Amino acid sequence: MDAFGILFVLVAVGLPLGVTVGFVVLAVRHGMKRGALDARNRALLASGVPAEARVIRMGPPPGVQFGNKSEMNLVLVVEVHPGRQPGYRDAASPFLAEVFAVIPRYAMSSVRPGGTLAVRFDPTNPMNVAIDLGAMGYT
């Protein structure tokens, strides 16, 4: 086999293999991030301070998207209005937070710029915010 034949075999086998391995690595990384995000959100929904938030801006997260067509991965910038919640030291002060969320398509009509969402936040680190779909009537 000449040099061209060897090069052809390397490209024909190596390129698809490399692309496949790349996608597998990205899928695993995404799954790990998604798992950590889900665990953090479950903890916030169980023990976070309830509040209302107004959606300031929304869009897709940076990077590669994986998932199915029944949900949307979004990054939301929200203005959280904690009101007078027990256990939160700055009850009167609204604050901005960035939320990475996976929203079911059936709930997307409630998630729009200018819209109001039910959220829960960590009183020790208010930048940790989770959307409370259950409080909005979604399960």
TrEMBL record:
Keywords (A to Z) from UniProt: Membrane, Transmembrane, Transmembrane helix
Transmembrane domains' residue ranges: 6-28
Name of the molecule in the record: DUF3592 domain-containing protein
